[in-house]
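Single-chain item
Fold in token form
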Amino acid sequence: MTEEVEATIGERIDGSLAGLILASIGIVIVSALVQVSFGAYSTTLSQAWHAVFNPKVIADPKVLGALLFGGEIPDGTNLSNTTTVVWSLRLPRVLVGIFVGVNLAVSGAIFQAVTRNELASPYILGVSSGAGLAVLLTLVVFSGLSLFLPVFAALGGIVAFIIVYTIAWKGGTSPVRLVLAGVIVSTVFSSLQRGLFFFADNIGVVQQALAWTTGSLTGTGWEQVRIVLIPTLIVIPISLIVSRQLNVLLLGERTARSLGMSVERVRFGLSILAIIAASSAISVAGIVSFVGLIVPHVVRNIVGSDYRKLMIGCLFAGPALVVAADVGARLALMPIQIPVGIVTGLVGGPYFLYLMRKQQNMGEL
């Protein structure tokens, strides 16, 4: 039994994947330390390190629970200013960035397998636009329901993908029809998003809506950590379990059916998983572009196309990209903070063009 487990781990973890994981963890740690160190209240990296691992916080379940679940810090607990700033304001933003990176990377990887197109992503397939439209409708038209924003974001993503699936259905679906239908739905929903701005008469709402449409981690706190934590804990193990099904889908529909797979059921179920992942990220950070496209492709270039390795790589590379990009978004133009989606867009746009130039055959398109 032990030998079987070791063999399974050996199949998933090799030198290239281990290197990717270590490099990603290093990027996240360095970026996180920079993120929590600098700002209106600046500290040294050493002070930030000690604040993050302050035993008064991490060794006290009551304090940790109060921060995580939004309670009051127990009486008699005296935290330094540095620890208070780090744990109350800056560390939650890093954690949200990690969860957003995980969810968008996993979502993009699944959609690329479902469509057998390396250029597919939640944005291309209309999921991001659907979730974004739902968020904007909630903010502009149904502002009293903003507490349910994550739920509406998920519903918007699901509705958008159902429309895409319906348009693409013709006695079954195909990767090409899914992508083309996704582009159409994404375009329509993006136009509706821009149209909603004309109905917003509150400048605060407009600014909040703009932040959602560009993707921003500004102002995120423990509430957003709690919102995104549960779906992330559901998505991660399932995405690892279904990696074999994703490998089979990549072999093509005819081969998958010959192996006994119900292609449409599996494709739809995996798509729902990807929608949940993307929607949970969008519900706390808005539409952070290109992460779902770039990360799976970078990981694929390093570890290969085996989804048993690719999914593990995405779990680490996604957070590395988002957390590092958010450091640039927050500190590059201090005191002005720009949305992280702008930084990922500036990185992702040129990389997208690079893919177009490099790819001889973009999936089945």
About this structure: The first helix runs from residue 2 to 12.
